[in-house]
Design goal:
The protein is of the alpha/beta class. It is built from 15 helices and 29 strands. It starts with a strand and ends in a 6-residue tail after the last strand. GO terms for molecular function: FAD binding; hydrolase activity; quinone binding; sulfide:quinone oxidoreductase activity.
Length: 559
């Protein structure tokens, strides 16, 4: 038997035989639901045979036949009722298990988010994106009418979404564009490191969403439930349907706080903080100022993460404050890195190592945070060093800066747009989807092997805009992305190591070395980060001004 668990109360299976029910009973199942009509195949046991075999095993049996392709609302309701009436756990079956899992999904439509339902069934091996619209409609069959239709629909109003909308409008002012995003506030997230270091006030990093949506672009304030790329449709929560000619997917990524047991309930207190959240970055600075002695931990999860340098930026700015206050001798700084190197591009490592030495920080590689006890001030790490046994170690702390694991949003991971790892599957040069020619992606959610930074999105937006305009004109892609990303590593107040690189770690400096050597800490790079980048973001990037971001021709291969 090929039994696939849906939840604690239900598992589904392809066709089972009467003599297999003994094994099912031994596995703990107390009831059986048959969703396959009699007579579909010559070798198929009848429902009467299955009912007798179930009774012999002391199992209850329910017959709820479903004609292939015709899952009615009435049957879904009856299936849900059966799960409450029958003793559990229950094993449901049909020819492949798809009809049984579909009945469960429709029965759960009013109780769980669409992405969660699709995720559960996908994990069991059943892709139910074909009924996503019904699930979003509470299990009921919706009309096929779209609520709205646009030439370009952009999912996500972060740095990537707003920038590509502005770049498209600058090229084609009459283009009908809609941005879908439920958020009220747009954040300049690169500024949160500076908030945690006491340099920026948090309000400098936030503006109302309505104030940054480009003029002439429609803002649909809603959450996406699912995609139907074959139908050129985006399904919103509540089953509203938005149709598109071209689609851009850039909702950012999900900070998976709940993946670390104990973390969510202690964030913002007990010395537990993170610069990865607007409301917590000020608490980082509060802790740094208040710590006179003790142990400070800084964690970095496995890649990929948003801004790979941010975990150590927090450590450097904290260490700099303690250095200036004369407290370093009394503070034990520990960097707990799930990876095996300090920074992924080796050219920048020597300068960073000098600051690790200056602040007396201990580097602990292959240490991944897996649990935290805030009240006890203890953090547990799984240590996976090469060629050694995996072990767990618990470390006491007085302050801990946590960077959570990061994944694509749930509605992306379960969609037809995702690769096996859950990221939007694009060509890394043109940023066009590999399977759906009228879909593009940029920013943190797509699977190109570049750094996930706002600087990367700044370079990607013109590439996507240029290629969409070319596509609208019936032409092939004409702009190429070379993997550029930038990470201004704030090693001390007043100095930055400006890491700029592309695919394969190739250095991509924006300025001549004589003006700014990015491999060394410089005041010029700090001035750029503190004074120039915020206005470039708000007044340039988000308004379609592509300063120093002209896309390369696609015929020139990216490094």
């Amino acid at each position: 038997m090929d039994i696939r668990k849906i939840d604690d109360g239900l598992s589904v299976s392809p066709q089972i035989q009467p003599d297999e029910l003994a094994a099912a009973r031994a596995a703990g199942f107390k009831s059986v639901i048959c969703n396959r009509p009699d007579g579909e195949a010559a070798d198929q046991p009848s429902q009467e045979e299955m009912a007798r075999a179930a009774a012999e095993q002391g199992m209850e049996f329910r017959y709820l036949p479903v004609t292939p392709g015709v899952v009615t609302e009435e049957t879904a309701t009856a299936f849900r009722a059966a799960l409450t009436e029958l003793p559990g756990p229950t094993l449901a079956y049909c020819r492949s298990g798809t009809r049984s899992s579909t009945l469960w999904a429709l029965g759960q439509a009013t109780e769980r988010p669409v992405s969660e339902i699709l995720g559960v069934t996908k994990a069991a091996g059943y892709d139910l994106n074909g009924v996503a619209r019904r699930i979003a409609n509470g299990g009921r069959t919706p009309t096929d009418q779209a609520d709205a239709s646009y030439q370009v629909v952009i999912v996500g109003a972060g740095a990537g979404g707003i920038s590509v909308a502005a770049s498209l409008k600058s090229r084609e002012p009459d283009l009908e564009i809609a941005i879908i995003d439920p958020a009220d506030i747009h954040y300049y997230q690169p500024g949160w490191t500076m908030v945690g270091g006491g340099i920026f006030e948090p309000q400098k990093t936030a503006r109302t969403m309505g104030s940054v949506i480009p003029r002439g672009v429609t803002w649909i304030k809603a959450a996406v439930a699912a995609f139907e790329p074959e139908a050129n449709a985006v399904i919103l929560d509540g089953c509203r349907v938005v149709k598109y000619d071209r689609l851009v997917v850039c909702p950012g990524l999900k900070l998976d706080w709940e993946a670390i047991p104990g973390l969510e309930e202690t964030l913002g207190r007990n010395g537990v903080t993170s610069n990865y959240r607007y409301d917590l970055a000020p608490y980082t600075w509060e802790l740094v100022q208040g710590l006179k002695a003790g142990r400070a931990l800084f964690t970095q999860p496995p890649m990929p993460i948003k801004c790979a340098g941010a975990p150590q930026k927090a450590m450097y700015l904290s260490g700099d404050h303690w250095f200036r206050q004369g407290r370093l001798k009394d503070i034990d700084i520990q960097f707990m890195n799930a990876g095996g190197v300090l920074f992924g591009v080796k050219d920048y490592v020597p300068a960073l190592e000098q600051y690790v030495k200056k602040y007396g920080a201990t580097l602990n590689f292959f240490h991944n945070l897996v649990a935290i006890d805030g009240p006890a001030k203890q953090a547990t790490f799984e240590v996976k060093a090469p060629d050694t046994e995996v072990e767990r170690v618990t470390v006491d702390f007085d302050m801990i800066h946590v960077v959570p694991p990061q994944v694509a949003p749930d509605f992306i991971r379960v969609s037809p747009l995702a690769d096996a790892a859950g990221w939007v599957d694009v060509d890394q040069v043109t940023l066009q989807h590999k399977n759906f020619a009228n879909v593009w992606s940029l920013g943190d959610v797509m699977n190109a092997p570049n750094a996930k930074t706002a600087a990367a999105a700044r370079m990607q937006a013109p590439v996507v805009a240029e290629n969409i305009v070319a596509d609208l004109k019936g032409q092939g892609p004409r702009a190429a992305y070379d993997g550029y990303g930038s990470c201004p590593l704030t090693v001390e107040r007043g100095k930055i190591v400006l890491a700029e690189f592309g695919y394969g770690g190739v250095l991509k400096p924006s300025f001549p070395k004589i003006l700014l050597d990015g491999t060394k800490p410089t005041r010029a790079a700090w001035w750029l980060k503190e004074r120039m980048l915020p206005p470039i973001y708000w007044k340039g990037m988000l308004r379609g001004h592509e300063w120093m971001a002209k896309p390369a021709d696609v015929t020139v291969k990216a490094d």
